[in-house]
Amino acid sequence: MRSIYRKNMKQETTDSYSHVLKYTGVFGGVQGLNIVVSLVRNKLVAVLLGPNGMGLASLFNTTVNFISQATNFGISFSAVKHVSELFEGGDEAAISHFIKVVRAWSLLTALLGMLVCIVAGPLLSNYTFAWGDHTLHFILLSPAVGLLAITGGETAILKGARQLRSLAVIQIFTVLAALVISVPVYYFFNQTGIVPVIVLMALTSMLLTIRHSYRLYPLCLGGSGRILGEGMEMVKLGVAFVVAGVMGSGAEMLIRSYLNVSSGDLDVVGLYNAGFMLTVTYAGMVFSAMETDFFPRLSSVNSDVTATNITVNRQIEVSLLIVSPMLAMLIVSLPLLIPILFSPAFLPMVGMAQVAVFSMYIKAVSLPVSYITLAKGDSVGFMVLEGVYDVVLVLLIIFGYSRWGLFGTGVALSLSYLFDILLVGAYAYLRFHYRVSIQVLHYAAIQFALGLAVYIVTLIDNVFIYWTLGTLLCLVSLLISVYILHQKTSLWASLTNKLKNRFRRHA
């Protein structure tokens, strides 16, 4: 009996690791394609606009996102839960009715967001820029805010209805459309085309999304005004996430505004944004499976402390093992990648980006732990944790930039994530009895030490030693991850069997 029990437990563990690895790979693969296309686009845009133009585009984009998150009532998040519950029940009439509620609220928040963007235009211009009057620009950007609200509601419907393939297709075509739209506009109009590009990209994203969602659930808004009250529970659920999102977007806007005003040079904002994009944004896309697969699994076991701990720890292990070799390679290759992906004018941000990569090592551990608070429905706790982190991030960026310039912002980013894991970990430990496993600590220590060794190698001036030792350490990190994943999963055997079966069919 004991041998059978151990065998079943081993099979359960193997299947769990295989599941986590599979879906992390699937959704990470989609994001990987998006990253490649985005890098090509950013290379061309960087050449066309330069650091100054990219800094200006960054300020406009972060402001639009800030207003969007401040006025969308969290529908893009909270609607997923309600649609998913109805979808599981299989009541088509109830699903169609609630989707009508979601669309009515999405339209209302779209109009609200546009109005806020127009009315707050003068304030945003004075606060965000140290020079010129950009009020008209913010007024012209108001349609983008409205389009983002509608896209958010329709995306929530697709997520709740488990239309993952449609979501992947939308992501791919959206990033391709961004390439096709932005490059010609910037080529002919340079910085004058920044506002039209933002609006056109928002419109394209909305059209691609509603093409799939309207086909699944046709649009019907008749009598929508009478059913707005039915969405109050959905709106209340999203309020805490709106506040957290506003604080996050507000922190990013404050950081970029501070860098712009304190330096008096948009080039600094452009360099910081490019470094942030390469490390936090692109590297962070690998964690996209958290939202689509891990969070539902964690939510289903949130009442069981032991199961919660196992689920979180396994996700951390797989995330660490997958992302660490990529991060090590990124640290080594940044001096080579930046001129290729952007232009030689962006080389001053190499040091900042290299040290900021460590924030992603930490995020691989902190993000699964932070989802415990969400799975438990502790929206207030989540909001407070996010608020404290955002305040610390802004203060660290100000301190880091004032002491060490652009390099200091990279140090600040990594220190902010270190603070975040200590804060989130302590909260999960005390409130939800989360316990980190020995394996997580073991894997984190190994991969972080290798990443630190790679970074130390980048400080060596000798080119031969730089590339030889750097490449060797990256290979060691990769081999360790492959070996551990091979031991813990059956995916390799499954792949071999599929290849054998395919060969036999063709033989």
Report what the structure shows.
This protein has 507 residues and is mainly alpha-helical. The protein has helices at 2-71, 75-89, 92-119, 121-128, 135-140, 142-160, 164-189, 194-216, 232-263, 266-284, 289-300, 305-341, 350-356, 358-375, 379-404, 406-432, 438-458, 463-488, 491-506.
Describe, in short, the structure shown.
This protein is mainly α.
Structural features:
single chain; 507 residues; 86% helix; globular
pLDDT below 50 for ≥5 consecutive residues: which ranges? 1-15
> Which bin fits the share of residues in helices?
over 70%
How many angstroms separate the termini?
43 Å
Count of runs of 4 or more consecutive helical residues: 19
Rg over C-alpha atoms, rounded to the nearest angstrom? 23 Å
Mean pLDDT: 82
Give the DSSP E fraction (strand runs of 2 or more residues).
under 5%
Task: Please report the total strand number as a whole number.
Answer: 0
Described by strand count, sense and barrel closure, the largest sheet is: none
The topology string of helices and strands comes to: HHHHHHHHHHHHHHHHHHH
Structural class: mainly alpha
